[in-house]
Amino acid sequence: MAATLPNAGALAGCKVIDLSRVLGGPYCTQILADHGADVLKIEPPGGDETRGWGPPFLGDTASYFIGVNRNKDGMTLDLSQPAGQELLRHLLADADVLVENFKPGTLEQWGLGYDTLSRDFPALIHCRVSGFGADGPLGGLPGYDACAQAMCGLMSVNGDADGEATRVGLPVVDMVTGLNAAVAILLALNERTRSGLGQFLDITLYDCALSLLHPHAPNYFYSGKVPARSGNAHPNIAPYETLPTASGPIFLAVGNNRQFAQLAQALEAPGLADDARYATNADRLRNRSSLRDDLSALLAGHDAAALADRLLRGGVPAAAVQTVDQALAHPHTRHRGMVLEQGDYRGVGSPIKLSRTPATLRKLPPTLRPADAGE
C-alpha cells in the first residue's frame, strides 16, 4: 500500500481491482471505496447487468447499480480475450486486493486463478464471492440471494405463523456476504503486515446465510425443536413484536423486567407488571397471547409515533413502523449523515463512522468506459 496524505480515508493507498457484479461484491468494494481505497471497477463489455435493473433510472443507469458503486473508477474489459487478460495482469502488478464473483472455475479457465496469480503476485489478496464455493456437494453451482434464503432456513422462519415461508424484503444474504467479504479483506490486509503475503478469501452466500440463523440455530441445537414462523414476534422474548395503536402499528422490544415495568407505568397500568402471568420473560412467553390482548387494549387510544418517542425516552425500546420515505426523511437520518446528495446523485451514507478518517463521497458511480479510453 502506498503512502498517503492524512484524512484521505482509512484505506487510502489501498488499490482494489473489482471484477464483481450485481450486489455482494460491489457492496463490499463500495465499503472499501467509501473509506479511501482506490477501487477500479472492471465490467464486461456489456456492463454490470444491474445497470439495466430499472426503472427507476438516472439517465440510462438503474438506481440499483447507482446504490452500490460510488467512489469507484471504471472501465470495461473482455477477460475472455488474451488482450483483456494481459491488461488485467498489468493492473494487478501493484494492486493490493482483487475482488471477483465469477462462477468458480471461470478465472481458472482463463489462466487467472488464485494458484497462478499468487505465484505471480504473492502479496495479492484474492477475495472470491460465490454461491457455494468451488467444491463440496454444491460446489461450483450458481447462487442467488433468494435461493440462499430459501435453502438455508431464513424463509422458513420469516412470515406469519399461519402463512407461507417468505423472503426477507431486502437482499440480506447478498449484503451480509458483502460485509463479510469486506471484513475478510481487512483481516487479510492486517495479517499481511506480518507475513508480507496475500491469501485467498472464500466467501459464499451459503455460509453467510447460515450464519444469520440466530437465535434459531442455537434454539434448535439446545431444544431439538424445529423453529417455526412467528410473524414479528420474537421466539425468545415477549413482548417483542408489533402491536396496533390508534394511528398504526408500534413495535415494542421489551428485553427485561425493568423495561416491562416501565412500559406498564407509561401505559398507566401498573397492575400489568404485578400480574403473575407476566412476572418474568419466561412467564410472558408462556402467556404471550393474553399479554398481546392486554397490551392491544391499552394501546388502542394512543398515537404510535408519540407513544414510541415517549417510551424510548423513558428507556423502553419502541418504534412506530415507518415507510422508507419516512425513514430517509427522519431528522436523525440527516443528523447521522446517512443521506448523501451531490447534484442528481442521492445515496445512503456509510454506517461506519471513524473520528479521524471518516468515509467520504469522492466520486459518483462510473459510466461505462472502454479500457482503451485513457489507458
Summarize the helices and strands and which ones pair or pack:
Layout: E1 15-18, H1 24-34, E2 38-43, E3 57-58, E4 61-62, H2 63-66, E5 72-76, H3 82-92, E6 97-100, H4 106-109, H5 114-120, E7 125-130, H6 145-151, H7 172-195, E8 200-204, H8 205-211, H9 216-223, E9 240-244, E10 249-253, H10 257-266, H11 270-274, H12 281-286, H13 288-299, H14 304-313, E11 318-320, H15 324-329, H16 331-335, E12 339-342, E13 345-348
Parallel strand pairs: 1-2, 1-6, 2-5, 6-7, 7-8
Antiparallel strand pairs: 3-4, 9-10, 10-11, 12-13
Helix pairs in contact: 1-7, 7-8
Measured as a percent range, the helix fraction is 25-40%
What gross morphology would you assign?
Answer: elongated
| Helix/strand structural class | alpha/beta
Low-confidence stretches: none
Helical run tally: 16
- Beta-strand percent range: 5-15%
Major sheet details: 6 strands, parallel
Which strand order spans the largest sheet, edge to edge or round the barrel? 5-2-1-6-7-8
Order of helices and strands: EHEEEHEHEHHEHHEHHEEHHHHHEHHEE
Radius of gyration: 24 Å
How far from one another are the termini? 22 Å
Give your account of this protein's structure.
The mean pLDDT is 95. The chain is elongated. The longest helix is centred in the middle third of the chain and has 24 residues, at 172-195. The chain has helices spanning 24-34, 63-66, 82-92, 106-109, 114-120, 145-151, 172-195, 205-211, 216-223, 257-266, 270-274, 281-286, 288-299, 304-313, 324-329, 331-335; strands at 15-18, 38-43, 57-58, 61-62, 72-76, 97-100, 125-130, 200-204, 240-244, 249-253, 318-320, 339-342, 345-348. The chain is α/β, with parallel strands linked by helices. The strands form four sheets. Strands 5-2-1-6-7-8 form a six-stranded parallel β-sheet. It is 37% helix and 15% strand.
